[in-house]
Amino acid sequence: MNLLWTEIDNYYADLLIPRDEVLEVALRSSAEAGLPAIAVSPHQGKMLMLLARVTGARKILEIGTLGGYSTIWLARGLADGGRLITLEFSDRHAEVARQNIARAGLSGQVEVRLGRAIDTLPDLADEAPFDLIFIDADKPSYREYLQWAVKLSRPGSLIIADNVVRSGAVADPASTDVNVQGIRRFNEALAAERRVSATAIQTVGSKGHDGFTIAVRHADH
Question: Among the four 27, 202, 204, 219, which has the fewest Cβ within 10 Å?
Fold first, then answer.
């Protein structure tokens, strides 16, 4: 990993992201529970919070909870009276996330729903539309998650997907990595989806070289 990227992350974190014991404990408890160290960085988490605030989000959907680190950031961006639903496949991850969310004082605003997202997404139709949808789960299913995100959103909703650059491997059509191919299928579906306008932003830092896709939902045609 490029050490300069990490140094710059640390520089800006010291300036712009005050130490937060709740978030630090969320990361530490996730590591102690054996969860993979794949949560968003503090900068990325704060970006998600700010995007939620900018959109005035009252209803947020997160696909992929892990230990609840990004969940806490997103929930802190909710408008007053807002609610966040996060979907998680792993019993263990969901248990750790619920503890971290409770420690953050957000249990009243956040609900962790257990099960395969592909199975639980159809149950959200009565709770839609969501103002912001964050996709950060298994990459081979990203195309299907996009389809559901469009269905469960409204004109003006924001749809964000993480890990869409894969250290640059996304540009290789011959890649045999199932995660890369999953992102490429997602990108092709996104490009063909007339109900959204999207862009991709590459990121470098303590999490290496990756990126986000950010899309805005249009009216149905």
Answer: 219
Structural domains of the chain, count: 1
Whether the CB-CB separation of 114 and 91 falls below 8 Å is answered with yes
User: Phi and psi for 83 in degrees, rounded to 5?
Assistant: -145, 145
CATH number, domain at 158?
3.40.50.150
* CB within 8 Å of 22: residues ≥ 6 apart: 72, 100, 103, 104
Cis check: omega of the bond before 129, within 30 degrees of 0: yes
Structure tokens at 3: 């050490």
pTM of the predicted model over 0.85: yes
pLDDT digits (tens, 9 = 90+) for 81-102: 999 999 999 999 999 999 999 9
Q: Is the pLDDT of residue 1 over 70?
A: no
Q: How far is CA 120 from the centre of its chain?
A: 17
The one-character DSSP state at 134 is E
Domain that holds residue 7: 3-217
